[in-house]
Amino acid sequence: MIRADVPPRIWQTATFRLAVILSLIFGLGSAAVLLALDFSMARAAQSELEDSLENQMAIMRADIDAEGSDALIEMLEGHRKGGSPTQYAYLVHTPDGGRYVAGLPADLPESDGFSRVSVHPATPRGGETTIDMLVLSARGSDGTFLAVGRETSALDKLRDSLHLIALVGGGGLAVLAVATGLVLGYVLLRRLERVSDVAARVLGGNQNERLPAIGLGREFDALVLNLNRMLDRLAQTMSALRQVSGDIAHDLRTPLTRLRSLLEDAAGSDDAVRREVLERAVGETDEILLIFNALLRIAQVEGGDRRSHFELVDISALVTELADVYRPEAEDLQHALRLDAQAGLYGRGDRRLLRQLLSNLLENAMRHTPPGTAITLRATGEDTRIRLSVTDNGPGVPAAEVPNLTQRFYRLDRSRSTPGSGLGLTLATAIAELHDGRLSVENGEPGLIVTFAFPRAPAPAATAGRAEPSVTVA
Q1: Helix, strand, or coil (residue 342)
Q2: Domains of the chain as residue ranges with CATH
Q3: pLDDT at 195
């Protein structure tokens, strides 16, 4: 069983093993390249030596064809006596018994082709040395046996040097690669262990810990950055969860207490009073259900995959429709609802949620402002953004309270006597974020301005280029 609290031995980690294996593969590959280079260079030198012997043999046979074997011997002898430098050794046997020997054994077997021969010339001090030679043998057109040889000491030295380079270089590269892999694997393991230690502390409850930079490349830094962002989001979520839990307990305690009191009163009342008390209890229950439904709606927007419901929405038509729907209610509450909408505005989103957002803003404006307040629903478009706003000329909100308006269950003291749960702007904010937009609240002096800005979408082909007037309804 693997225990998370016990650090693994270094050779048990996949990171370390992978680094060593890759380094070993690199080292062996480099050694193989050096061996191939050794073979190819040695083979090239061997081919050059053989070509030079074949060229010299071709010259000798051409001389026999032109002037005969005796003339060839006389020419070779003249070169030797004249002290002309030569890098070749010769042996010539003519059919009539003529012979020329220079540097090759006189008893060389008369076989055609290449062969290796060792000769043992005397040294100036009376000793003897050994010279290895590559010899090419053939016969001339008149039957003369021809042999030409060349020392292979330079070739042998080159080959020995290449073998040494391949052996030492390849082995050195393999050892260096493995050592590098060990070092890199150890460094990477230590840095990953630092990340693992931080993750363990986060799991242990320290939500303020963040992962340290690994520092081995942009991809690792990007990974750590995204993980830290994820931890920030989780910390915000946990904080919001704690706040919501406290807010739910606080805001539900009052209606639940009233409900319990009503039910106690109903238990000891006669039928007529009991019916009235139960009706009030049903009202309290409905208020509790409204709170839960609002919370459920917010959770669905924040956590559900609502983007699959996105479509092209005619924003101009949507705000016109909402103004027509809410104008009678505004008049009943003695408000003046005005529409100022630019035509031809389109955005991608969930039509029902966008309608919910604007409905919440309009209802808030109508419920929390005194009679006679003018409310304006405005829709304007820029090159890439659409701005939807609900503005009123009511008493507004104290500047210190504005940042709190989008918090769950937050209500001003003067609004606690009006229906509502304090979740309208919270839901609107969640819908705005789902649509890659932003909900802002500011004082209009007088009144309040709530604005929702989100990306604008191109108009459909059927309406593109069509000039439509803006809609303004007092």
Answers
A1: coil
A2: 218-301 (1.10.287.130), 305-473 (3.30.565.10)
A3: 74
